[in-house]
């Protein structure tokens, strides 16, 4: 119980007046950073980092990690209201959050998203509090083959679960992989598919593509439909929060599953983005209302949000315990730790007890403060939906353009965003799913790196992918998830004696 | 606070030499790597020192441009001819990236401001490995099948070059596994997924102090000069690889460039700024924390260093087959 008293002492540190003040300021800044697409948590933290050099390290990390919490909460807002993911891990939130907002249930969707974030984050913090050393060791078992298997599992859980036309999923996936290949290749150190265009050296930034594919294309569609405005009925009272909460216990299975997926992905460091997709894919398969996913199902908001935030929080664990950043924001915080003169790593828990437990206590408090603050803003944000689209649309476009520019300080990215807006529009018209392309774009190069690193090490032998229990389990699970969909289709087809053709396995 | 900064700025500009140039807007420090890496830490340390000691009336702003292993950042500087409000932090990448990728940039089109330090490279192994010296490691590599795996950050970069050169000197086949960063390589070493890595001190020190990895020797002509002991680790106790019969040595510059076409006064301002920065206790702390070799060079001294260091890299990279063809 030594740790427990240390945690209580940590609460004492975190609850001092000025630290609570930093917490609130941090959360508010974080929400702004999360709402603006492109600015993002890592940038927000990086910009403010120098301001904290004069501060005491505990206060500084409380301020910066509160920005992180705020950004995690804030990312959901634009995803739900405008179909624009403010952060990469909010992409899966748009799938059901946006349809809900269009049905006039924006308040409900926001409440669900914020509450799910909170539940995810708290499960992540609990993990850090109680099993930090144990879990930190587990992360070390992940070599290239294991990483590849985790990414494979993410692809399979998301793709194999899809109920769309499997050929179209495959096409979308392959385009995503192709886009992910543009730019510098880690393994060979060569440039690929840049055609001597300097702007392409950076590759396609995930956020620029996503802002175009989801946000801009949605504006095109709405314009085509004659600016039909769907959000009129948005309720704007705080009761919606209580009503939504009353319905949440029904989804306990999804919440628990997503928390576990998230914590695991955060620690391993598969990351919040992969976690959100995996959480969504699994919920779609195992929910009774799986067929309603994508049409405005509240479970489709809960699942990715819980997973993303459990992962985002758990990602701080390897950083503190091992000095491995589990996410980009964690990487910036890591730099901060060193500038304040703290060396992250296993010794941090021994040498800097006050700091570590103050930080952990601030994770609990920061999330409670964050939840209260964002819930209070629900009516405000839901009210945005009552503004006529003809007024909101140009503003959204400008915000999108600023977001795309901010990612790499490049005008080229704004054109790219518009181009992907057109691509997204065409995809939607032709009934091609966008999600597989996005998933392949964000995880494709990492999966490729891991695959080639594994083969380099084994001298080209594929045996590395079933060389130990961990990697074998992951690969087998992937295969099961991949073929579950096609096989259950096949069984259904056999029973009904062949009306329509079965899709025989989305070949990987 | 604001008033204080303002009056400080006034005092500074009043005491400054009448003809001396000073920045008139915030200065952008372009970092050719992502946030959190060694280059980024150096830029943010300088930024913090300049701010804390009020060394410039204008703030420094750090901008990360990590694409194409620094190629993007160098293209940016190349395009910013005559812009005195831009700096670039550099490592050996300043010649390695153009040599290995054919990205059309050349440091001769930039203005070298100064070199601040040199970074060391060490051979690290897992803490519980049986190797006592680098020769033990190489002896095992001779019989390993498939070939022994050694990790590092990036492909055709410093670590890759070092692994190739060690293998060539010892007559052993080694498989280099490129990771996104040295930090990742260190974690992979701690997990036993590679047999060794060739990281900078800053990239492996956390795992060293945590009892996960340990250094066999430093790839330098002499031992690291820092002798302060913290827990079980003392950089000065690490033998240089020459003591263990491995003659290959490698160091990497850490310096600052400006875009080409700037005036002598503009360059002089930054040379002075860097000299002032390097005299602060925070800078000395930074050097010691990352076990950097203090080696300051400005003006012609720096340019001569760049020319000979570039020739050395060209030669090594040619032998390793890293030079871009086509």
UniProtKB/TrEMBL annotation, chain A:
InterPro entries, alphabetized: DUF112_TM (IPR002823)
Keyword presence, Transmembrane helix: yes
Protein name stated in the entry: Tripartite tricarboxylate transporter permease
One of the Pfam families matching this protein, by short name: TctA
UniProt entry keywords in alphabetical sequence: Membrane, Transmembrane, Transmembrane helix
TM regions (residue ranges): 20-39, 60-82, 109-135, 142-161, 167-184, 204-223, 261-283, 319-343, 355-382, 389-408, 414-443, 464-484
Domain DUF112: 22-439
Automatic annotation (TrEMBL), chain B:
Top-rank lineage group of the source organism: Bacteria
Signal peptide: 1-18
Keywords: Signal
Matching Gene3D superfamilies: Bordetella uptake gene, domain 1, Periplasmic binding protein-like II
InterPro entries to which the protein is assigned, alphabetical: BUG, Bug_dom1
TM segment ranges: none
Family: Belongs to the UPF0065 (bug) family.
Protein name per the record: Tripartite tricarboxylate transporter substrate binding protein
Origin species: Chenggangzhangella methanolivorans
